[in-house]
């Protein structure tokens, strides 16, 4: 197991989550809009029990809008859950989410206690700060920043924990692990950057060839991923010595371009029936986002 999530760390995160979950009324599950299945962790379904939840598809500014809309429809219809595409940095989000939490609160007579939960780097701290209208949680572009836990009173009938519930990324599925690495959800040291860049190139060739060609002025997407990565390196003048492409530097460039949206609006997973690419997630994986036993099925 890579990225510093050893069984001991997972057990500790689980214990902490169990403790806060007992005092939680509504669960705000943050996933990455570009990979809503791989950025979710199935352990949450059990942990959450019958508590109502809302799925926030964060970083939707980086995702393919059409695919995100398909996900929203899919999650609402198949999983029976409210799903909102969001950009956690947008202040208008606060009012909408607070309203939703209050509507979902099973205890009408008391303040709603909401827990924001998700894997590292998905945008939990950014969301808390947006909701609070000030900086209460440390935002970092590196996974796993730890904090003390207490409530933040949003002064509108909703409290959120200032320390979000940390879930570990689910790396059991290799494709999912590659997608997580591509978006930067797992630490830099956990994977080989060239391998991830080759994965990105291969995926872009299938799902978004025009974006790839436009970004790197490629005449076509023919050839192996390696030859395309080399062509990108040449185009960007990433040479280790005269005429020899520095693959690692090129790989960093490609991963950064994907993460920052310079490659365009890219989604790495589509709902099963839409089959965005050959890599669309299997239906079983999508079940991880389905409701727990005591939630009603979508009608
Ligand atoms: P956490 O580990 O889940 O608490 O994640 P953070 O809130 O620290 O955010 C991780 C990184 O993602 C930071 O660099 C944020 O600025 C960035 N980020 C968070 N939300 C969004 C979003 O909706 N869109 C974009 N583009 N970046 C975001």
Explain the overall architecture:
By secondary structure, this protein is an alpha/beta fold. The chain is built from 11 helices and 9 strands. Strands 1, 2, 3, 4, 5, 6 and 7 form a 7-stranded mixed beta sheet that branches. Strands 8-9 form a two-stranded antiparallel ribbon. Strand 2, helix 3 and strand 3 form a beta-alpha-beta unit. The longest helix is centred in the first third of the chain and has 16 residues. Guanosine-5'-diphosphate (GDP) binds next to helix 5.
Keywords:
7-stranded mixed beta sheet, two-stranded antiparallel ribbon, Rossmann fold, 2 domains, alpha/beta, single chain, binds guanosine-5'-diphosphate
Q: Determine the strand fraction and express it as a percent band.
A: 5-15%
CATH class label of the largest domain: Alpha Beta
| Helix/strand/pairing category | alpha/beta
Count of helical segments? 11
Average of pLDDT: 86
**Which small-molecule ligands are present, each listed once?**
guanosine-5'-diphosphate
Number of structural units classed as domains: 2
Share of helical residues:
25-40%
The count of β-strands is 9
The coarse overall form would be elongated
Residue stretches low in confidence (pLDDT < 50, at least 5 long) are 142-147, 276-299
CATH homologous superfamily annotation of the largest domain: P-loop containing nucleotide triphosphate hydrolases
């Amino acid at each position: 197991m890579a990225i510093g999530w050893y069984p001991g760390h997972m057990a500790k995160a689980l214990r902490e989550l169990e403790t806060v979950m007992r005092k939680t009324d509504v669960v705000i599950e943050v996933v990455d809009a570009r990979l809503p299945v791989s950025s979710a962790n199935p352990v949450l379904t059990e942990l959450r029990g019958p508590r109502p939840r809302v799925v926030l598809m964060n970083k939707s500014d980086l995702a393919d809008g059409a695919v995100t809309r398909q996900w929203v429809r899919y999650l609402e219809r198949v999983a029976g859950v409210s799903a909102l595409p969001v950009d956690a940095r947008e202040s208008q989000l606060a009012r909408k989410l607070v309203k939703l939490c209050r509507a979902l609160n099973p205890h009408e007579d008391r303040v709603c206690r909401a827990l924001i939960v998700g894997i590292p780097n998905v945008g939990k701290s950014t969301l808390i700060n947006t909701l609070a209208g000030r900086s209460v949680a440390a935002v970092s572009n590196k996974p796993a920043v730890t904090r003390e836990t207490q409530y933040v009173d949003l002064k509108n009938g909703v409290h959120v924990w200032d320390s979000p519930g940390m879930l570990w990324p689910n790396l059991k599925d290799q494709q999912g692990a590659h997608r997580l690495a591509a978006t930067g959800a797992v630490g830099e040291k956990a994977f080989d950057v060239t391998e991830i860049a080759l994965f990105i190139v291969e995926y872009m060739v299938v799902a978004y060839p025009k974006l790839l060609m436009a970004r790197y002025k490629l005449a076509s997407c023919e050839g192996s991923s390696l030859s395309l990565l080399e062509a990108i390196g040449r185009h960007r003048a990433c040479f280790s010595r005269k005429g020899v492409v520095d693959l690692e530097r090129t790989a960093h460039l490609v991963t950064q371009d994907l993460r920052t949206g310079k490659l365009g609006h890219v989604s790495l997973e589509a709902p099963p029936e839409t089959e965005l690419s050959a890599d669309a997630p299997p239906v079983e994986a999508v079940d991880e986002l389905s409701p727990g036993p005591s939630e009603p099925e979508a009608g």
